[in-house]
Amino acid sequence: MAEIDKTINYVEFGVADTASSKAFYGGAFGWSFTDYGPGYCEFSDGHMKGGFDATKPPNPGGPLVVLYGNDLSALAKAVASAGGTITKPQFAFPGGQRFHFTDPDGYELAVWSVA
Question: How many angstroms separate the CA atoms of 108 and 26, rounded?
């Protein structure tokens, strides 16, 4: 499939509990989910898919997954309300703004928007 050649296609997180991961990402970002057994669910953000795998322990670190959002202030509030922790408040960088957060399993992610 030429249109997805050499692009990020799927991101998979080892999680402590798929239900709590679904509650966090559904609450903060409105993602949808498809369960594939008791220890695995696929998420969709409407653009890309990935998975939450409770058969692997959480492994925070590794590459930084960066989401896009139109309203960073509203998303930061949604992250905090859903149980995440803002680790770097909103800041500017060339071409945009972003903030970093950790989810309930300790993964650090970021959300960015154009300036």
Answer: 17
